[in-house]
Amino acid sequence: MTDLSSLEEFNRYYSTGGNPPVTRSLLDFFRTCVKERMPEKARILELGSGTRSLFEEVSLPRERVTAIDFSSVAIERARALGSPIEYKNLDITFPDALEGEKFDVIFDSHCLHCIDNRAARVSAFKNIHDALSEEGIFCAEMMVQPAHNSVSFPMKFIPTARELEEEILKHDFQIIYFMIGRGLSFENGNQECDLLRVIAKRKTSA
Fold first, then answer.
1. Cys-Cys crosslink for 93: which of 1, 150, 189, 204, Cβ 3.0 to 4.6 Å?
2. How many CB atoms lie within 10 A of CB 137?
């Protein structure tokens, strides 16, 4: 369900030695907001790991981390690190992509805002919801429109904060943390958008 032009673009980038640095805002988000909410010995899934998982930089049992990316080139390079982290070439937008696996933490490393097709986003959120353990948490840092103007970046989905909130709730999640980070932003040329941090759980029956 992924846009092939997007996949080709990422594969081309990684094939020519592209190696995006670990985003400091993601590390900060994990350390200050996510880690304290994790159960002991949590099983972790990272979405959009690229050539090196965020969790290579974090002190925790790496053998309990699965990192996925839709780029086979990125995953091949990541596996060459020789890390205990399990790297898999998977597309989170494919139906039943995770084949019934369950995780205590699903952490979006700037993957979801790269999915700009509505049907693909529905499939991705369904996979995330279905893969969460009973008390598991879904954590994401995503692009949202700035308060006072509208921006667009190539191959990026940038809703308003309210639209993103509604999208998450629509997929049967309960939001437990929702914040637009002060001083956090993504830049593209002379345009800039805000970053929203969210933590959610599966909605429980009343």
1. 1
2. 23
End-to-end CA distance of the chain: 34
Q: Give the C-alpha distances (Å, rounded to integers) separating 40 from 37, 44, 61, 136.
A: 9, 11, 11, 12
Give the E-state strand segments of 56-131 in sequence order. Answer: 65-69, 86-89, 103-108
Does the predicted model carry a pTM greater than 0.70?
yes
Domains and CATH numbers, the chain: 4-202 (3.40.50.150)
- In this predicted model, what pLDDT tens digit does every residue of 37-60 receive, in sequence order? 998 899 999 999 999 999 999 988
Q: What is the 8-class DSSP label of residue 52?
A: S
For residue 103, the surrounding DSSP H or E stretch is strand 103-108
Phi/psi at 164 (5° precision): -65, -40
- Specify the residue for token string 């049992």: 61
- Res 81 pLDDT > 90: yes
Q: Is the pLDDT of residue 1 over 80?
A: no
Strands 132-144 and 65-69: unpaired
Going by the DSSP 8-state scheme, the letter that residue 147 receives in this structure is S
The DSSP code sequence of 168-202 is HHHTTEEEEEEEEEEEEEEEETTEEEEEEEEEEEE
